[in-house]
Amino acid sequence: MIPFPISEQSPVAFGGPLPSETDVVVVGGGVIGVCTALYLARKGRRVVLLEKGRIAGEQSSRNWGWIRQQGRDPDELPIMVEANRLWTELASQTNVDIGLKRSGVTYLAESEKELQVYADWLPHATAQGVDTILLDRAGLKARFPELAKGGYAGAITTPSDMRAEPWVAVPALAGIAVREGAVIVEGCAARKLDLEAGRITGVFTEAGRIACSDVVVAGGAWSSLFLRAHGVSIPQLSVRASVGATEPVHLPHQGAAGAGKFSFRTRADGGASLAAGGFHELFVGPDAFRALPKFRAQLMADPFGTRFLPAAPKGYPDAWGTKRQWDGDEVSPFEGIRVLNPKPNAGKLRKVAVEVEKLFPEVGPIRYRAMWAGMIDTMPDVVPVVDRVDAIPGLTVGTGMSGHGFGIGPGMGRVLADLVCGDAPGHDLRRFRLSRFSDGSAMELGPAL
Ligand SMILES: Cc1cc2nc3c(=O)[nH]c(=O)nc-3n(C[C@H](O)[C@H](O)[C@H](O)COP(=O)(O)OP(=O)(O)OC[C@H]3O[C@@H](n4cnc5c(N)ncnc54)[C@H](O)[C@@H]3O)c2cc1C
Asked: What is the pTM of this model?
């Protein structure tokens, strides 16, 4: 098996150095932090992005690479439509081939009931001018005969949905951000905020203090640990999700597609990325106990989608022994694990390969050349927190992308940059407000598919 391409042994590509002051510090170099830094730089702000490990070392390189509008929460959809446009723009602004292709996304329906769920989502697409189409059994056969062989009741498909190669794309976006004035410091954890009279005056990092008036927390699976150390509580949990990349294989369907037991997309290297759609594993820790009541609606909606594991490996954000409080001059938990690199569930991935072989018997045996996993940060209502924190002036949060932050990354980054600058973000962000977890609101699961 080929090792995962980004690890803490990877050479530092963005070495700073750490300036002593800036306007905005962004914590986290995943797609959200990178895009926020990029759009802040475009707005003329001095911005420094701190990444404890390597740019895109965690979720942002480990995902399936689907850039999809299809199935989004209605409040995310307009931002995602914008993100689609921004991806195309950004791809032309880097000299790196990020593998961006408009190859469509298709969900196969195993029953008429499932097809109806897809049909119910369709008006959201229509309202935003997205080209999603519902296909009944005959329609599926006519449009995608290679998929219809699976005996599905129908499908929903969005031709304008795209894909890209995550571990190439996000560092390429970071390259644009640096070219446009952002400073990126890899191997530099943000330990704590420096607060004076409750307002941000700087950030304590492992390389010293940096003065700033604004901070954006985009720490993925680590965000709630960072925020909680400052009294800001978000019910964010992380689940393990595994992916396999196959040896070169010609799948008869060249877009991205998913059904109950599998998902796949073709890759720029001639292989395919395979995964078990709708399956993930939760390591139970103190945050899980605290947040589970808020996750009840999500668990009831999909009771078999989550497998519970007794405890996270040492040093994980919600491991039992992970420190929850520390000072700015103390080593923080973020320095303990530079790149979260969970062990993939190889057994599950083998079963996925069998499902894909059954659908496309003409392809023959599917062999993996690499397997990996990522920790998906998720919220109880499966939509992120994108908001300013009233209790700490100068603090903005962009996290909890709930398994679909890669595609929407440029859109969310653009919105977060506006929030920091106090400019109108151009979208209704009420659904993503921080206070929904404390103001007595019921957790509202959207029709996210
Ligand atoms: C297996 C899998 C499949 C997925 N498939 C898709 C898909 O097809 N399409 C899609 O849209 N989304 C997908 N996702 C989700 C998507 O990858 C994430 O939503 C997105 O990458 C989140 O980006 P982020 O920037 O919020 O977090 P991350 O990419 O996790 O980045 C956070 C970064 O912050 C750093 N950090 C944390 N704390 C600190 C600190 N204190 N100081 C410095 N640095 C810090 C971390 O090291 C990390 O690099 C998938 C995710 C996984 C794991």
From this structure: 0.98
